[in-house]
């Protein structure tokens, strides 16, 4: 047995105890007796009294002296070592604590199964700054079969340890790892949850907020993330401006968290509801309900109404107002809405949106008073994330998805643009040019064409492909390969059906044709497409009926007898669920308030392609990519596209080879006709 006491150490401890008593730093109810005057049984009695009184200076002295004697009963040793280790650690003597713990483990093979041993050992190693030993011990415990109460103690200790180190994500992850090892019975798991929740309750608001940074959309329903997010919500519940958003978060967690015991959450939520009441959310939609765009507006409204109904079933009351942008004076009616309608969806058209900020308009102050999420691809001259926000696919989203496919998935870095000479075409061409370089692409060709002069289209394609002027004289002669592998054509689907066959005429059949979202929307109702020209055509879109979100929306619509889902229905459905998480914006709100709320509101299961917003409030959408097929469209398979490119290039190589063979045969026949001896065309003439 390792000797953990000596006469000098004992004298120092006695002196320390005497000084503490003299200075009034230690309660005086325990009289410090000379250890030499006490028998071992009496010494243990005095040590126990000091321990119970939490006078660790005295208990360390007495237990160390007891161990120095040779008449301790073996069965008493584990308790003596345990208390000596704890006393020494609390007195700032980690080396003495370490020796006691190791001695305990040497005489008791089950020492490490004790939660007390684990806790004191970890405290001691941390005090000695033994970081590597702590990491090794964590790995060992995770792989061990220690009793659950000991592993739980280790889990909670390391969570506190990582929090103190400002490693907030790991503070939660370590608990997640141990929770997955917990016994399947409810008692063990709920006990772990209660211990963690009790610890959370003792943290200050800043620490809870820091821990909440480790909660994500993926882990939010699991232990310990769900309890962390819930406690974070509880800490912010007294903010009247944010109560609506907080309540929805707490309610979702109390209903959907994957915990063994949900009672603490439901009880706490009930207390907060009794104190602050059930919130309601005021939302407004500015849509064309009549007129030429009524069909689109009504579809958006159908999705919005469905979302409102579903939220109501979940206990979230959404007060929805619809403003028809086709009725004169609509902007004044929007401006006159009560202040709690603080979030607006729409408008759908640029001219309507301008009425919300142009000088002299009755709605000129709407953007200052309400957070407006337009259903537009761009905010024009306004700053997205400051003046207003976007809940719609942008042109940059479309272009980025296409360039990413070409460069990163197909390995095509040499690109070209063939665009119509009108505003949309020029704008998209410029965006493509700007986006290509940052994503690794190079623009090798850029050619425009007059949108209404159809006879010019073929000539301009020939110019882009660098077709020689004498092509018409010998159409069988193979053309040079284009110096690019993909071409962006920002025009409508109807125009594409004329343009793409012209590329084939000039042997551009191995090119990948990149189209805008206009193609995708047209393909939703297209029939009888000649697939020959479109096997290498790709276009982006925000709606795919067979995505998980698309199927879910269709199922909900079917349940309520509300018809078929499409992009516009999905837009309304997703927007109300997104905006419903905002709550009512506080008076005097600014763009930073909105952008902070977006960070939690965007964590929904989108039915259309998912949208995200950065810290400045700028939106982006991860679009689907489609290829045209006979009766519509299908998702792009990049591997299949790459294989089709290889086959197209192989066909071209065979055509070139066949042409060369024909030329050789024609030369032989011409020589024979002229009476000259036939010459091997593969041997140069001067040999």
Summarize the structure in short.
With 687 residues, the protein is of the alpha/beta class. Helices cover 52% and strands 10% of the residues. The strands form three sheets. A seven-stranded mixed β-sheet has the order 7-6-8-9-10-13-14, sandwiched between helices. Strands 2-1-3-4-5 form a five-stranded parallel β-sheet. It has a two-stranded antiparallel ribbon with strand order 11-12.
Strand order of the largest sheet: 7-6-8-9-10-13-14
Overall geometric form: elongated
For the biggest sheet, the summary is: 7 strands, mixed
Helix content: 40-55%
Estimate the mean pLDDT confidence.
87
Number of DSSP-assigned strands:
14
Rg is 38 Å
Strand content: 5-15%
Ranges with pLDDT <50 over ≥5 residues?
Answer: 5-29
What is the count of helical runs?
A: 27
Broad structural category: alpha/beta
Distance between the termini: 101 Å
Structure description:
This protein has 687 residues and is α/β, with parallel strands linked by helices. A seven-stranded mixed sheet has the order 7-6-8-9-10-13-14, sandwiched between helices. It has a five-stranded parallel sheet with strand order 2-1-3-4-5. Strands 11-12 form a two-stranded antiparallel sheet. Helix 3 (56-68) packs across helix 4 (77-90) and helix 13 (243-256) runs antiparallel to helix 14.
């Amino acid at each position: 047995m390792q000797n953990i006491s000596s006469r000098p150490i004992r004298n120092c401890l006695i002196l320390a105890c005497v000084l503490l008593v003299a200075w009034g730093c230690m309660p005086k109810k325990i009289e410090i007796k000379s250890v030499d005057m006490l028998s071992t049984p009496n010494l243990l009695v005095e040590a126990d009294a000091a321990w119970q009184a939490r006078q660790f200076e005295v208990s360390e002295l007495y237990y160390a002296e007891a161990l120095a004697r040779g008449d301790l009963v073996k069965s008493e040793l584990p308790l003596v070592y345990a208390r000596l280790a704890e006393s020494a650690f609390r007195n700032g003597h980690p080396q003495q604590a370490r020796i006691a713990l190791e001695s305990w483990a040497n005489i008791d093979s089950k020492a490490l199964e004790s939660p007390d041993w684990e806790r004191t050992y970890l405290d001691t190693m941390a005090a000695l700054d033994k970081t590597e030993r702590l990491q090794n011990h964590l790995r060992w415990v995770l792989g061990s079969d220690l009793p659950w109460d000991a592993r739980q103690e280790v889990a909670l200790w390391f969570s506190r340890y990582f929090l103190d180190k400002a490693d907030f994500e790991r503070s939660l992850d370590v608990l997640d790892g141990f929770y997955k090892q917990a016994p399947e019975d409810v008692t063990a798991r709920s006990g772990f949850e209660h211990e963690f929740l009790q610890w959370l309750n003792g943290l200050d608001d800043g620490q809870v907020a820091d821990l909440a940074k480790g909660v994500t959309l993926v882990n939010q329903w699991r232990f310990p993330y769900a309890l962390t997010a819930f406690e974070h919500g509880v800490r912010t519940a007294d903010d009247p401006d944010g109560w609506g958003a907080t309540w929805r978060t707490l309610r979702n967690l109390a209903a959907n968290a994957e915990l063994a015991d949900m009672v603490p959450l439901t009880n706490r939520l009930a207390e907060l509801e009794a104190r602050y009441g059930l919130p309601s959310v005021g939302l407004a939609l500015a849509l064309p309900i009549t007129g030429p765009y009524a069909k689109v507006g009504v579809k958006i409204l159908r999705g919005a109404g469905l979302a409102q109904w579903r939220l109501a079933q979940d206990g979230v009351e959404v007060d929805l107002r619809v403003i028809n942008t086709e009725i004169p004076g609509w902007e004044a009616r929007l401006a006159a809405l009560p202040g709690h309608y603080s979030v607006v969806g729409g408008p759908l058209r640029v001219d309507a949106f301008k009425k919300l900020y142009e000088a002299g308009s009755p709605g000129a102050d709407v953007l200052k008073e309400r957070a407006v999420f337009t259903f537009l691809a761009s905010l024009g001259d306004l700053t997205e994330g400051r003046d207003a926000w976007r809940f719609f696919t942008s042109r940059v989203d479309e272009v980025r998805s296409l360039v990413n496919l070409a460069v990163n998935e197909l390995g095509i870095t040499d690109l070209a643009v063939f665009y119509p000479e009108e505003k949309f075409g020029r704008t998209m061409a410029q965006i493509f040019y700007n986006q290509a370089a940052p994503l690794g692409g190079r623009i090798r060709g850029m050619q425009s064409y007059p949108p209404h002069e159809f006879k010019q289209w073929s000539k301009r394609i020939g110019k882009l492909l660098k077709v020689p002027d004498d092509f018409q004289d010998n159409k069988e002669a193979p053309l040079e390969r284009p110096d690019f592998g993909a071409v962006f054509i920002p025009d409508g689907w109807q125009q594409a059906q004329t343009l793409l066959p012209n590329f084939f005429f000039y042997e551009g059949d191995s090119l990948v044709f990149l189209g805008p979202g206009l193609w995708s929307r047209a393909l939703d109702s297209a029939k009888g497409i000649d697939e020959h020209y479109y096997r290498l055509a790709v276009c982006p879109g925000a709606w795919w009926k067979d995505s998980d979100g698309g199927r879910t929306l269709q199922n909900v619509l079917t349940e309520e007898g509300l018809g078929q889902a499409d992009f516009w229905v999905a837009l309304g459905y997703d927007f109300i669920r997104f905006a419903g998480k905002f709550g009512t914006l506080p008076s005097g709100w600014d763009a930073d308030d909105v952008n902070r709320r977006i960070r939690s509101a965007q964590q929904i299961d989108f039915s259309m392609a998912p949208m995200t917003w950065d810290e400045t409030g700028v939106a982006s959408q991860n679009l689907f990519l489609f290829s045209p097929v006979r009766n519509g469209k299908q998702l792009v398979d990049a591997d299949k596209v790459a294989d089709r490119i290889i086959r197209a290039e192989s066909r071209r190589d065979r055509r070139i080879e066949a042409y060369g063979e024909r030329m050789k045969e024609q030369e032989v026949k011409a020589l024979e006709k002229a009476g000259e001896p036939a010459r091997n065309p593969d041997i140069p003439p001067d040999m």
